[in-house]
Amino acid sequence: MESAISFCNNSTLAVSLSRNPSSSSCLKNAKIASPSSLLPNQFLGCGGLSSSSPRAKWLSSFPVQPRLRLGSTSIQCSVSGTTAASSTEKNSQLTRRSDIRNIAIVAHVDHGKTTLVDAMLKQAKVFRDNQFVQERIMDSNDLERERGITILSKNTSISYKDTKINIIDTPGHSDFGGEVERVLNMVDGVLLVIDSVEGPMPQTRFVLKKALEFGHAVVVVVNKIDRPSARPDYVINSTFELFIELDASDEQCDFQVIYASGINGKAGLSPDKLADDLGPLFESIIRCIPGPRIDRDGALQMLVTNIEYDEHKGKIAIGRLHAGVLERGMDVKVCTSEDACRYARISELFVYEKFSRVPAESVEAGDICAVCGIADVQIGETIADKAFGKPLPAIRVEQPTVKMSFSINTSPFVGREGKYVTSRNLRDRLYRELERNLAMRVEDGETSDTFIVSGRGTLHITILIENMRREGYEFMVGPPKVISKKVDDQLLEPFEIATVEVREELMGPVVELLGKRRGQMFNMENAGPEGTTILKYKIPTRGLLGLRNAVLTASRGTAILNTIFDSYGPWAGDINGREQGSLVAFEDGTTTTYALFSSQERGKMFVGPGVDVYKGQIVGIHQRPGDLALNVCKKKAATNVRSNKEQTVVLDAPLEYSLDDCIEYIQEDELVEVTPLSIRMCKNPKLAKKGR
């Protein structure tokens, strides 16, 4: 396997030339052959740069293209060169551990991270041959399995050729970018997984930018290479351009490319020649990602980057040991800053082996471990030596952009289904969420029973709402609002990059819809032979609220919308919201077939017959602007003077809105009532009602 893998540094030269052709670090060590020995493919074939690349075309404009004979013919990554130089680092006490690799797997949503981790675990013999293993085993949360996305970062480890590889699976959705930012403190390199058809997407840019800021080594994995419409050359060239745009160093631009099919458990150095297993991927991890840089003999330092809870052990702090040795039963100092420290004792110590936590007596610097015994530990704190320990820099994540109001349930049905209904219950739960959700903010509202929750996006807060209702909480939430700010007396609001994949024949309605939401198109390109067009817009976050369902409607359910925060910009102006009003229940009672039959002529209904409703509850969508109060509980008069036969009544099927749909639907004067068994919408009794 080792002799089959070759790495080279020619793409480093391409990057250096593109920035400054006269001062390339690669040229200094390169031997230039005569023009007659010109072989362009050898010059352009490394780092995944194909001959159709924009960089390749630029290089081809030179009258003489040199053929490079790089001095070393051994198997080597550009990153391993920096690893070898670690012995001459500024701080001579820091060394590299060669028996451990700490990596994070990052990607855009649905590019196959978790499936790839499944294949890595199976080939590392983490499970028995006859053991039943469900798909996406790292997605252990019920909500993750239902939605098919990764929400929380989780870590495991495997062994390959006497090297322990700690793997952290991260979320791919932009709303959970805080999870990615947090765990990048624990690793030394990343596997950047990219779909072989879609190429780099908005979240790919975000996670790559964060990894490059940390100075991490990157191995690019072109996943799903077995798809019929795979286009690896386009993907690699686009990825290389993305590295250039993000000001990656020459060493980082010389990334190793692995082509893989995660679902089949195969990988290779060429898209046409995949090995029978993931051996090339494992080899690339060992060779291209350096071991952790540690201070083995220094004072103990461990940065807490994650917290789990166990009914028997209490809080479990998870993090990477940066210096020293941590032992079970050891007295330590827990610090948030130089002046804020407290003392504690480590009661239990665990390391990750295969798919479980294993007790350990001691852990050396460079490894990822779990610690018990510190009841009040928080993410971002440092567990340090009792006498000489110093805190590590705190974890920084980007600020939230969307906020929603949470309040106690004030509907007539309060307490029917929920276990926790008071403002004290709601307050305790929300502030407890801050212990592990660094990207979220909670503050008290205008009244004692109202709280303002801020997050990275609507989905970020919706996941919290869904978890709370499953835990037995009853409460109400208001519509999402953007977090604006003033700079030099100018009002600024958040803008996002929206990427829409839509069929060409359905592009018109989508473009019109995004234009109404103040979106500005800056790129449009065809995506492969399937007739799909990719539209890229810069659009205010306000314009994205309630947009997802509208885009699906305009594209007949075929469009895919992805967004990621870009920057704050000047206020874009007024944006029209929902054009249709709501149908509102006129009185308390139980819906009847008789009343619904006449009501459905006014719009689309949310409720069927035999459902309890209350005055002010939203029971449907009005077909015209403005709200309309309806009596959906009216019963047919039961008299004995009618001799005609009863007519057969046919009702339309009611609309079934999920929690996400309800939050997208409501406007300023409306609320979503959330209970463990039901999700209802109602008019906000504190605000003046909109009359027809």
From TrEMBL:
Database matches in CDD domains: BipA_III (cd16263), BipA_TypA_C (cd03710), BipA_TypA_II (cd03691), TypA_BipA (cd01891)
SMART domains, per the entry: EFG_C
Gene Ontology terms: cellular component: cytosol; ribonucleoprotein complex
GO molecular function, one term: GTPase activity
Pfam families: BipA_C, EFG_C, GTP_EFTU, GTP_EFTU_D2
SUPFAM superfamilies named among the record's database cross-references: EF-G C-terminal domain-like, P-loop containing nucleoside triphosphate hydrolases, Translation proteins
Location of the Tr-type G domain: 98-293
A GO biological process held by the record: gene expression
Matches recorded under PANTHER family: TR-TYPE G DOMAIN-CONTAINING PROTEIN (PTHR42908:SF8), TRANSLATION ELONGATION FACTOR-RELATED (PTHR42908)
Annotated protein name in UniProt: Tr-type G domain-containing protein
Organism listed in the record: Opuntia streptacantha (Prickly pear cactus)
Organism placement in taxonomy: Eukaryota, Viridiplantae, Streptophyta, Embryophyta, Tracheophyta
